[in-house]
Structure formats: C-alpha cells, structure tokens
Amino acid sequence: MPRITFTRRQALMGTAALAGGLAMPGLVRAASRPMLTHGVQSGDVAHDGAVIWGRADREAEMWVEWSTSDSFRDAHLMPRLPVGTPTDNTGKMALTGLPSDQEIFYRVTMADLSDGTKSEPVTGHFRTAPNAARDVSFVWSGDVAGQGWGIDEDRGGMKTYAAMLNHNPDFFLHSGDTVYADGPLQEQVELADGTLWKNVMTEAKMKVAETLDEYRGQHLYNMMDRNVRAFNAQVPVIAQWDDHEVTNNWYPNEMLDADDRYTVKSARLLAARAGQAFHEMLPTRQNLAEPRRIYRKVAYGPLLDVFVIDMRTYRGDNTANDEDGGTPFLGADQMAWLKRELANSKAVWKVIAADMPIGMMVRDGETGMENGANGDGPVRGREADIAAMLSFIKHGGIANTVWLTADVHYTAAHHYSPDRAVFQDFEPFWEFVSGPLHAGTFGPSDYDNTFGPEVRFAKHPDEGQANLPPSDGMQFFGKVDISAATKVMTVSLMDREDVKLWSTELEPTLA
User: In the CATH scheme, what is the code of domain 8-126?
Assistant: First the structure.
C-alpha cells in the first residue's frame, strides 16, 4: 500500500495558525478571521464513509469538502454544520456515499456566523474500508498523559504517535484511557538522572476534572501535541474508553467520599459529563437510542470486523469480585449485542477490542478488584460474563477471535487454553496487550488461572521500578497485518522507537 503524504504547504496549512493560537489565544480570538484550534480528526471509518471532526475558536459554520485527489479537483462540499457553545464549538460530520477502498482527502473550514469570514482550511486523509479482500494493517495502544507525564516539547512530545504514523496504518484502535482526567500535572518533575521533565500546562490539567468544560479540556490538552495532530490528520481512529476518562477505577454506583480532590462525589454524574466530552472530542459514530454508548462494531471488509466493547459503564461495584453466580460486567444488553454480532459476522478475523485484559489481576485498593480477574478459579464475580462469552464463541462455531487491549502499562502476548484453565468450556485464543502510548510504565501483573493464560512475551520495568517516564523509552503499541492472499494475521509488539520487540503469525480457521 503506497504511503500517503501531503505537500509541505498542505501539512503546514493551519498548523502555523494553530501554533500561534496556542501561544497567543487572546490575539487570535480578537482577530476577525476564525480558526480551527486543534487540527482535524477522522474516525469509525466504513466502506462508504467516516466521521470528520473539527473545532472552531468561536461560533461558526463547519464546512467539509472531500475528494479522491489531494489537489481537491472535483471536491464535494457537504452541507454546512453550525457549531457553538453547546458542543464547545466542536463539530462532527458523517461523510456518506464515498467510494470503497479509496484514498479520501478532506479539508475543514470554519466560517464566522456573523460575517461569513472563513478560516484557513485544515486538511486530512483516510482510506475507506474495502468491499473486496485486500491487505489490512492497523495499530493499537492506549493510556495517554497519565501519571504526571504530559507534553514535554523539549523531549519531542508524544513520540509514540510519530512511530505509529511511520506505518501508514489503515486505522488506529485506541484501547482506552484516552485521557487522564483524574491526573493533574505539575509544571516540572525531577527525573532519576537529575534532569527535569517540563510539562506544557493548561488550566484543565491543574486539577481533577469535574465539570463538563474540565473534561473537555483533558482531550484538548492531548491535541496540543504536534505528533498527535499530525497522526490524527492522516489516520482514522476507533476510540473506546476505560476508567481515566472519568476517574481511576470508577464504577457507576461509586461515591468518592474519601477523595478530597473531588467536590462532586457521584461517579455516575462525573461519568455523564465525561461521556459527553468523550463523544464531543472524538470522531465517534453515536447511537441514537443511547447517545453515550461506547460499544459498537466497525466492519473493515471481508477480512476484519472490530467489536469495541465497554467493560466500565454497565459493571457492578468493585468488590472482591468473588460472588458465586457472577456479578454484572458487560451488562445484559451488551452481552446480547456482542453474541448477536459475532454470530452474524462473515469476516475472517473478529477482533474483540477490550479496555481491560482478561487474566491479569488489577486491584482496586486493599480488597477490591478492578477487572474480571479475581484470583485462581473457579469462575466467580465478573468472570461469569467472560466465561459465558467464551463458551458462546466455542459452541457457536465462531472462529478466529483475537482480543486486543491496553490498560496495564506494559506490553505482553497471552495465549489462553482450556488445557491450563480451571474453566474449560472454550477454545484456545490469543490476547495481546500494548501500552502505554504516553504515560508511566508499570508491571508486571499477577495472573489468574481461571482461563489458563500463558505469557508468551512481556516487556515491563524491572522489579522495584514503577511509573517510568516516557523518556525511558518503555512506551508501546501493537501492529496487526492481515494478508489478503493467505488470510494470516501477523501481530507485532512495538516500542516508541519503532523497534519490533516480538511478533507472531496466526493461521486462520477457514470454512
């Protein structure tokens, strides 16, 4: 697949205005010409369309044009979209009727509502999904601006995004913790070598997020990074959330009475605000019946379906997770949806995009458990939903499922097998973990033998080390390549210097 590049003028068009706006926001806002403040994004790409995102510095009309040529000859102008205060001047436009398997170039312009003055256009690119078999390549990771590590421009900013962009992927699967709304930044952090990490600071990153505007500011902060903006302009995203979009280890019934940082104590209320900001600031396709719903299927041609799940919104409380008979994790509606969509999928490979790993034990305080794992078998607590799903996949004859996730701040390859498991009513499968994108590095985790995980590869800090800064280099992403000729899926675990750490080839079961 040829690498798509923009001319220098296209790449810089709007970027200089953006940089100036970040440095002198008062001067830019006072000017008569509007601007796009944080670049452009595309997401949830389909065979005939995608969602386009932009944000103005004021109330405006969002103009979107698309073309199959980077020269924009024969450009198609979409209906204008008003943007304003209700969405923090953000706009999302669903492009439809596009040709399949086609390079699409788009440009976004903002026009002032009062006098029609237009901004400089900002350009972007994506490729629509194919209807016929072709090679597919994508990247995944998670965890951005966590544990005190924000944008240090002297150290190159969020460099893992640049490494991922080198591969010109078809799309990026963001596996959650897209922001750290509960992780305020300090202006400087002294590192072990005596040098200083110097964070770019904004008002939103000085305290935990509680208001809608503060949650919005978490996402806008990450888009200040030049690597993120360059990546967003060329690679469509499939975004999901986990906990840090709201607050650490949250569950719907939680009350934050013991956390003095919060004046708003209801996790449910915080999650409602965070969910609105998530969908405003990311190019997601929203469900009309449940506008803040995260789970959805993204079909990417005959070789791949991506099933984005939500392990956060429908869960029960973070107890010891040892209840006999199970406790809510995915929720009845999401479980029914996932079973139905997996059974109906005709794609060779079915990727289940999870925001937490299955067999790694993640604790919440002294007695609570955060994810499904809870210690060695039998099936208890939230594991009941995982067991039911794995059994359904086996008895439904659903072949070639692969689980991808992030969350634990290191990278690993796990093989699950009933031969090693306490619960045995499932077929062997793989789970791959990669992250953080730009956050502290931790690990390793303890493992739960309920589903028989075996660690085939892992890279994490040495024992006694924790919260290593991005400058230590242990920032990770994963890459998936599916061959149209052989249907083989190759999974590679990469670091931010673009070094391949480990790789495996998965042979599909074909009907």
Answer: 2.60.40.380
